[in-house]
Amino acid sequence: MDKIQLESFLKTIASGVEIKEGKQYLEVTVPSSSLHQLAKSLKEKEESKFDFLFCLTGVDYGTELGVIYHLRSTSYDHTVVLKTRTADRENPILDSVCDIWETAEFHEREVFDLLGIKFKNHPDLRRLFLDNSWGFPLRKDYVDDINIVTK
Amino acid sequence: MEEKEITNLTDEHQEYVINMGPQHPSTHGVLRLKVSLKGEIVKSIEPHIGYIHSGIEKMCESITYPQIIHLTDRMDYISAHINNEAVCLNVEKALEIDIPDRIKVIRTIMSELTRIQSHQLWWACFGMDLGGLTCFFYGLRDREKILDIFEETCGGRMIVSYNCPGGLMYDIHPNFQKRVKDFIKYFRKILPEYDQLLTGNVIFHERSKGIGTLTKEDAISFGVTGPTGRASGFSCDVRKHEPYSAYDRVQFKEILFDEGDTFHRYLARIDEMWESMKIIEQLIDNIPEGPFAVKMKPIIKLPEGEYYQRVETARGELGVFVISDGNKNPYRVKFRSPNFSNLSVLNHIAKGFKIADLVAIGGSLDLIIPDIDR
């Protein structure tokens, strides 16, 4: 499916989503509550078959934290980007997509390690690179007096 | 090791846990695998990573785009040139710069040379892991010839940093074409020797056939790309699916197998070396004339937005995801590293095999640890 077909398809299976034509891919902003459901139907629906999660990125937007999912279909070669955000910086919780794509298990651990976003229903949510004495370095308000020199 | 497991070491019916690494010779870097064993059978593997986590993604947020290129060298240091290319292509795509053909062709030749030397090193180490020390000497002897070509043109041998946004750092050395052609001629004769030494070896067959089988569905679900994914039948070659640089003008075959075991992961890499040589031969005599770099602004600022560029490194799909807020520093950079996803499948495919097979399976995944830790 090309971008236009994909857009109309997304409108039929999801409500309350914001669809934007990005520079490269179709970008879909989803409320965190309906992310898991949409991801599941994108993978399982015969028309979309997004079976390959090739990038999972955690982002600190300043006031909000967010996760970006890059999905591709290996049968149709089309790509879509899902985005979700949470405003809770103290205790950010999002739904895990581990049960849909196995690769998410490691990627979500990485996001938890570096940004502190917790994933509900993740089988083994522990820190990946750093130990518990660290903060969450990829957050914009992370302070490290020794290693980060601010001019 | 936990205490209760030490007390049960003699009981063969109990699971016990050993640490493989972080200094184990077969992990080729500081990777620690916590292996649960029952007798000699692997029950589960838990990779512990982060020993050389250098925070490259955090560092990228405070430096400029041309500086990022030099950090990407240090991720997957065996395919450094291809990592550089990914960042450059991303910047050029965001700024909508047209790159002259000469640059595209040189980049493609360099990428394929990088792929060959990476597979040579992998072949050398894989043979050594399985007990064939001669492989190590053969592989490194031939790899040296490519590193010499790199040294002459780029100044660096492994960490080349030859790309810059808008082109290349400097033009190719006058000897470059002749030396590459000599090398291809030499290596076409030598590569069958690799087959004689290892591919047809009965002991090698026994140790690799049917070991660590990965199905296509699992390869896609775990995000396993590169020769590892293609040995399972997952068509994931970025050079074919989303051609960049000069890959759209050369003829080559995407190596695909259905079996997905250690032996076919091995064959996929050997066959890729043949294909890479084919690509170089098609381009080396036809390097177009022209400038080796486009003039860029002294300070590169990407327009606001999100940019994703993927390339095929020797190990799989490398993605560079840049979120720009219009400044000279990126707002967020994410490297989708091929090894990170490839490592995640290790527990799945090595379960139920013997601990000696774990070395073979780990070797066939061709992991580079700094790329996992970043």
Structure in words:
The complex is a heterodimer of chains A (151) and B (374). Chain A starts with a helix and ends in a 31-residue tail after the last strand. Chain A has helices at residues 3-13, 35-44, 104-115, and strands at 18-21, 26-29, 52-60, 65-72, 79-86, 93-95, 118-120. Chain A contains three helices and seven strands; from the N terminus they run αββαββββαβ. Chain A has a domain at 3-88: NADH:ubiquinone oxidoreductase Nqo5 subunit (Beta Polymerase, domain 2). In chain A, a hairpin with a 4-residue loop joins β3 and β4 (65-72). Chain B is of the alpha+beta class and 374 residues long. Chain B is 49% helix and 13% strand. In chain B, α5 (101-129) packs antiparallel against α15 (355-365). Chain B folds into two domains: 3-48, no CATH class; 56-373, Orthogonal Bundle (Cytochrome-c3 Hydrogenase, chain B). The model of chain B has no long low-confidence stretch (mean pLDDT 87). The A-B interface holds A 22-25, 27, 51-55, 57, 59-60, 68, 70, 74, 77, 81, 101-103, 105-107, 110, 114, 128-130, 137-138, 148 and B 49-50, 53, 55, 57-58, 62, 94, 218, 220-223, 225, 234-236, 241, 305-308, 310, 317, 319, 321, 323, 332, 334, 336, 340-341, 343-345, 348, 373.
CATH architecture of the largest domain in chain B: Orthogonal Bundle
- Global Rg of chain B: 21 Å
Whole-number mean pLDDT of chain A: 85
Task: Label the overall shape of chain B.
Answer: globular
Given the structure, what is the number of helices of chain A? 3
- Biggest sheet, spatial arrangement of strands of chain B: 1-2-3
According to CATH, the homologous superfamily of the domain at 3-88 in chain A is NADH:ubiquinone oxidoreductase Nqo5 subunit
Q: Architecture of the domain at 3-88 in chain A, according to CATH?
A: 2-Layer Sandwich
List segments of chain B where confidence is low: pLDDT < 50 over at least 5 consecutive residues. Answer: none
CATH C-level label of the largest domain in chain B: Mainly Alpha
Report mean pLDDT of chain B, rounded to a whole number. 87
Distance between the termini of chain A: 48 Å
Write the H/E string of chain B, N to C.
Answer: HEEEHHHHHEEHHHHHHEEEHHHH
> How far apart are the first and last residues' alpha carbons of chain B, in Å?
27 Å
